[in-house]
Amino acid sequence: MTESIRLGRIRGIRLGANWSVLVVAVLVGVGLGERVLPSIEPGLSGVWYGVAACGVTLAFLAGIVAHELGHAVVARRQGLRVEGVVIWALGGFTSIDGQPERPGGELALSGVGPLVSLVVGGVLLGLGAGVEALGAPRLAAGSLAWLGGLNLLLAALNALPISPLDGGRVLHAGLWRLFGDRLRATVVTTAVGQVVGYATLAVGMVLLVLGNLEGLWLGATGLFVGAGATAERRQGVLLATVGDRTVGQVMAPVAPTTVPDWWTVESACREGPLAEGWPVAVLHDWQGDPSGLVAGGQLLAVPPSLRGQVRLRELAWPARSVVTTRPDEPVVELLQRWTPETHWAVALAEGRPVGALSVGDLEALLAGRFPTPPWVAGPADRASQGPAPVAGNWR
């Protein structure tokens, strides 16, 4: 989920909001000011309702943040790195680098969110009852009670055993423990999420066609659940196939010195890193900036009669065909950023390229055909990977 508005940090955890949360805040605030709060205590001025609606809306969003911070705190205690928390139209999202290693860890990480919402809801209901007993205005007591009920509803909805909701991950932890197989548990829970999500989407679309605008919200929720379950299923399969391999474990080493991109293929075959047997070399332009990436197999693919005419930069893919990565980045995370237009990934360490990974390497890895890196083979055995992509400015 993209962060559009930065809200600051709490205990080092970055907080942000997507622009869509503003739409929800407006809708909730208007609904409170025009319908909910006047029904709790009629006869007040519009200013009172407006001020109370703003306060309740902010408290509602704070409850979502508290829910997500529960996930973040438990993740940190399990040694996982938390990227940040983002709230958006359909709730919140905590970006966590890595996954629990055991079912018990996943149970704690997933269950803490609904538990936090349950506690917040109970406390608010208790405060509402207390201030009412003390004779406080009905508007204050009713607002607290409404917030408490909403947080309890949030806890109940998130506890539903549907992936990608928290309850779906709790179910996943239970099935993981039962089956002893993480992937099997993922297949079952995500299948449930896909069926429920897309069925909800269909019902929402029918209601919308019939003129019921609530179908739009229902359809959006169903789409979120169905798409989220599909994404979790794909990531689970990738984890089972790729495991915990990092980019550094499967990347081709890059030559320690760069090669001028104006060299001809003949020159590169005669001298320089590629002639010395390095599988991949970085190119530089007249200014000395990195301008591309070339694989040794590509030089061999050029007919001998043309090697004195074709320059290395003429073999390059455009910059949009390259993604950058780190040697310590898990391959499964790199795959999440890989698009059909991507042909190479360049691994950077301290701003300098140290390795490269081609689409062919990843396909071999996913097919289970990657016991020996292809660059270990001799030059005659190296298949051409196609034109080398422009790596762009890596500084």
Automatic annotation (TrEMBL):
SUPFAM superfamilies: CBS-domain pair
Record-annotated membrane-spanning stretches: 12-32, 47-67, 79-96, 108-127, 139-163, 183-210
InterPro entries: CBS_dom_sf, Peptidase_M50, UCP006404_Pept_M50_CBS
Protein's GO biological process: proteolysis
GO MF term (any one): peptidase activity
Calcium listed as a keyword: no
Pfam family, one: Peptidase_M50
Localization per Swiss-Prot or TrEMBL: Cell membrane
Protein family per UniProt: Belongs to the peptidase M50B family.
Entry protein name: Zinc metalloprotease
